[in-house]
Amino acid sequence: MSKENNPAGPDIYPESDECPGEDCFGFGDDLELNQFDGLPFSSRYYKLLKERKTLPVWKVRCEFEDALVNNQLVVVSGTAKTGRSTQIPQWCAEFCLSAQYQHGMVVCTQTNRQQAVDLALRVADEMDVNIGHEVGYTIALETCCSSDTVLRYCTDDMLLREIMSDPFLEHYGVIIIDQAHERTVSTDILLGLLKDILLQRPELRVVVLAVPPMTDKLLSHYVGVPLISLEAPCSAKLIHSNSSNKDYFYSALRLVLEIHRTKEDGDIVVFFASAEEVHCANSILQKEGTRLGSELGQLVPVVLCPGKGGLLPCSTDQPGSRRPRRVFLSTQQGEDMWWPTESVNFVIDTGVEKKMVYNPRIRANSEVLGTISQFQANVRKQLSGPTGKCFCLYPEDSQLPAERSPQILESNITSTVLFLKRMEIGGLGQCDFIDRPDPEGLMQALEELDYLAALDDDGNLSEIGIIMSEIPLDPQMAKALLASCEFDCVSEMLTIAAMLSAPSCFLEPPAGMTHEAVQCHRKFQHPEGDHFTLINIYNAFKQSQREQYFSAEKWCLDYFLDHSALKTAEAIRSELTDTLNRIELPISESSFGTKTNTQNIKRALLAGFFMQIARDVDGSGNYFILTHKHMAQVHPLSSYGAQSQKLGLPEWVVFHEYTLSENNCMRTVSEISPQVFIQMAPLYFFYNLPPSESKDILQDMLDPDRSRNCKEQRAASDSSDASSGCEVVPQTYDRCVIQ
Length: 739
What we know:
Distance between the termini: 65 Å
Shape: globular
Oligomer: single chain
Number of helices: 25
Largest sheet: 8 strands, mixed
């Protein structure tokens, strides 16, 4: 069983001299039976109990239990390696047990799904109970709970969805919001809604776990609540760079190799700016590791990105050889992951992070490289313990922002607004946000929901909007899935939605195998576009599962496809199918490959993604995006990107994703006809498109007579301007505007 970065867990019924107040929960001093399952404690329970009592959080156990009894909301301030995420939930379970669960069980949220699973496994071990029984977890597409569950870990978005069916969360007596400092959208909304829920449920208890300076914000947001501060572990020896290092990536890799050559014991943790850098570093270190002398020992790079699984098993030592040194490669989202703290002795902090910031004006994400926050830097410094070293690749006097920027200010909040509308919080006045959403982003979200027919004339959810809120997809994809019911292509649209919701199914080919990977992927390419290619891949994957002579895993490896991603897509598709059945929407039989089916799929896609169309303005792949007049190219991994020289590029396309970055590429692109776009896009959306030549082409198709009159009037005006000696203004985007 993997151990957490802060192996922390409360003893469930500990024999403790430190906390005489335990009797207030109705427990004796010398219990030998576990009151959660009625069985005798195992020897492992007592072994783990001894370890847990050394954690900093145990020094405040009595203070915390008193605060929980006497207050509805308690804020706990503690950094990593204090035991907060495992001990406090167990003490809360004891609190609920003392009340015989009259007010409900305990739920503890996490921002990362893998951490929710790892914590549940660790806590079940510490409580000496079975996972899935007294302790369980719920993450997207996976639930491991039962009617006996008294402590459940879950991701913050899963608890948020529960509010739709249980607005006051009456199943729970204690709600623990962990990692509040991560400032995810779901956590911020929960913190806002819980303020009102507490007024409706005086018996409910809420515990918020965070690190400074987020705790200061919480204290000002929730007035008059107690703060319990945990003693921070001693930090490692800090070594700062003398100057800002623009070449931080290779500096970090060189430092890894230098540390390894010193032969000092201990694993290494390196924080990079993005997942791309992590995978690139992994590839480089694997190559360099083969060139090192055997006397230095083996260097084993380990990719640790959220969503990619937990820590790999500990390396096995071979007699007569040095223990392999692991190099954990992580990103800015990995500070709170479970680290093998007993082995990590070196931390390398590049001090930068790459994140996506949503721009509501152009409905696209921008890739932004910036510095980490001070609290992130502090967390990283403590990962190696007092005897370790932390190398900061930035000057000691660097001015780091105090805290991480809230994601609700940097994300597309259309899904959030749809949820809040569903909760009948139309004006967002009843959700007391710690940081309110940006007004421009809020207006864009409401406008988008209006275009998707999710709102009625009064600004409330329409019938379509209510159904969309039931489907666990972003609003555009949910609308496309609903439209597929009308166009008899539900099966195909379920596959597209699942494949786009899951991680990318394309594996990064090993060095020297890129050409082979491209050739394999080309076998799935569909002439109509990437959405159809995804259907081909999924159907082929399902076919491989029925083969007798080879496994689906081997088939995926042979075609450079990610088996776990395709299994995730399969699970998402099953969940979406269950959702459609629950709300009694028709699911048509698949007829993929027919001409009618192809056209219907495009109609359904455009019903949701009509805001994401582009036109090739010069025939060479320079696409003009109609909604914001930006230029973009098709991503090289697109089927069009690979075949552009041979087949040519379509003039009009619908795309799933567009990111402002170095290449400004559109991902997941399929050909459409402008006539179908005109049929599917709401007229008032069309009216609001900025003037352009591409809009004029659509105008000609929509209303040829009116468009002709506009052109004649403009031509006459231009002629008059020319005869009077005035300079003619270029007409690139100065076109007749539809009113």
